[in-house]
């Protein structure tokens, strides 16, 4: 498996501790606020907000918390003002990374992101240096014990674009706005979904062939995602299941 989707699957298997879950909810709440502020609080007319709310529900965020975030964003309740900034950089091994942030202080956030890259053997890049190779897609991984026919029937009927084998799992590509609907259809068909997300997929990948480099890359991913202002981290690495097992 590759990039951010691989990382999402790892986190899913590890499970979310209360602290980690609280951090995730805080980040999703920011995304809801920004989507509501930019397009209004009506889910029917705001596709971006609808997608983020589906993401929140998939993460088991409560309806009350979602409603409060929507109201803050739409101006019905007081909330902070966040700016969306994407940073680009390289992790060890030449792996390209894009870092989406929502921040109320761009100087603080920029310094934090640069420090993480420098401290862990990576480097910041100029805007556009790596972004050209990424495009937004919905990516779903399904337990590989399922048959191809079962996965294909459930996924394609729900609007998926493509199905392929990726290591020990099935990889399904969708339009970003359809990812959670396709996930629900797969689960409704009795299939086990390992991860589902609207993410950035790279047109090129870096094959990571040793555990030490893999470990360094994942440390950068983890450090970036641990930052409160960071919403998502996308990368173009490809690490085999065998090396992931070695990394632990």
Could you explain how this protein is built, in words?
With 248 residues, the chain is of the alpha+beta class. It has three domains: 16-74, Arc Repressor Mutant, subunit A (Orthogonal Bundle); 83-132 and 208-235, Alpha-Beta Plaits; 133-202, YebC, transcriptional regulation domain (Alpha-Beta Plaits, 2-Layer Sandwich). The chain has nine helices and ten strands. The strands form three sheets. The chain has a four-stranded antiparallel β-sheet. The chain has a four-stranded antiparallel β-sheet with strand order 5-6-4-7. Strands 8-10 form a two-stranded parallel ribbon. Strand 1 (83-91) and strand 2 form a beta hairpin. The longest helix is centred in the first third of the chain and has 22 residues, at 18-39. The protein is globular, with a radius of gyration of 18 Å. It starts with a helix and ends with a helix. The mean pLDDT is 88.
| Helix content bin | 40-55%
Number of helices: 9
Detail the poorly predicted runs: none
Give the CATH level 1 class of the largest domain.
Answer: Alpha Beta
Strand content: 25-35%
Tell me the overall shape: globular
Run of helices and strands: HHHHEEHEEHEEHEEHEEH
Distance between the termini: 15 Å
Strand order of the largest sheet: 3-1-2-9
**Structure summary, number of beta strands:** 10
CATH topology of the largest domain: Alpha-Beta Plaits
**Radius of gyration, whole Å:** 18 Å
How does the major sheet shape up? 4 strands, antiparallel
Mind telling me the CATH superfamily name of the largest domain? YebC, transcriptional regulation domain
Structural class by sheet pairing and helices: alpha+beta
Kindly give the count of domains.
Answer: 3
CATH-derived architecture of the largest domain: 2-Layer Sandwich
Average pLDDT, to the nearest integer?
88
